[in-house]
Amino acid sequence: MGEQPIFSTRAHVFQIDPTTKKNWVPTSKHAVTVSYFYDSTRNVYRIISLDGSKAIINSTITPNMTFTKTSQKFGQWADSRANTVYGLGFSSENHLLKFAEKFAEFKEAARLAKEKSQEKMELTSTPSQESATGDLQSPLTPESINGTDDERGTTPETPQHPPEPRPEPSQNQLPFSHSSSSINKHWEAELAALKGNNAKLTAALLESTANVKQWKQQLAAYQEEAERLHKRVTELECVSGQTTVIKSQKTELNQTIEELESALKAKEEELERLKEEVESASEFPTLKESLTQKLQVRLMNNTIALHTTLGLRHLVSLQWVYICVCWFVRVCLCVYKCVGVFCLCVCLSTQCLAKVFRPLGFLHILLCYKVQLK
């Protein structure tokens, strides 16, 4: 069988129901690959389809097979060896026509191969003595010599008993002549030689017939073994074709497993953390009480600090007022001192001016008086 398929397509595979012989039974849940293979050892063409590692079609194309198109996308053929009818549902009519064309092509090739093999078997099965006995020149007809031509035309598979020689004519009916007696002696010698050859050929034929039966049994056993091995090889070839897909799927599954393991590890760590939190949750009441007490103390301290701050702020404001008042008093005292000094100066200057202008006053008074007098 070829390592690579000659032609491949995808279709849904069906088989006829063996009980009713009317209904179709699907043999695949989805469309599978249907391929033509050439078996070089047996010189035959096969249609093979696998669903995973299971062979759902293993049909040998014979010259009497016919692929029938029953609808636009469905075709069928009968396999007498498998005692079933296969049906294929295609996705388009073009795929169906291509499959039918290849079926007819390989069917014709199977017919030619069968004819050649039959011709070869006929040539090899003819006994070698056939040519030797057929070259005898005789004026008599072949039927008069024990029917040897009929025996040579038979195949070695069916043993034939040598026919009885026909009775020779009596000497009373023949003319008593020297030539006739010599001819009779010659043909008697030829007849005896042919009888001996016939006996030898009969023995050889019986022996070859026994050998043929044994060879047929061995050939049937070999054919069964070869069929089983071819089927196994086909399955292995189809499985090996899926090795790349399986490897890629295995790689993806390994990656998925690694991701799940990492996620599982993270979940386990989170679970351990939650367990620790649950264990530490029993300490929360006492911790809450202590924190509550600390909070109350902090609140009291904050209240005291607030009041202290307000008091300090008030004290600072009072200090600023006191400082301002003190400075105001100082300024006032300075002003008072300055005014006192000014007043003192004014008084002193007034006294000095009075001392200076007192005589002038008296003169003015006298002048005024004189003027009044006048």
From TrEMBL:
Domain WH1: 1-110
Keyword Transmembrane found: no
Subcellular compartments: Cytoplasm; Postsynaptic density
Region (Disordered): 116-182
Composition bias type Polar residues, residue spans: 123-147, 170-182
GO molecular function, one term: G protein-coupled glutamate receptor binding
Keywords: Coiled coil, Cytoplasm, Synapse
Gene3D superfamilies: Pleckstrin-homology domain (PH domain)/Phosphotyrosine-binding domain (PTB) (2.30.29.30)
GO biological process, any: G protein-coupled glutamate receptor signaling pathway
Primary location group: cytoplasm
Cellular component aspect of the GO annotation: cytoplasm; postsynaptic density
Keyword Chloroplast: no
Top-level taxon of origin: Eukaryota
PANTHER family associated with the record: HOMER (PTHR10918)
Family: Belongs to the Homer family.
Annotated protein name in UniProt: Homer scaffold protein 1
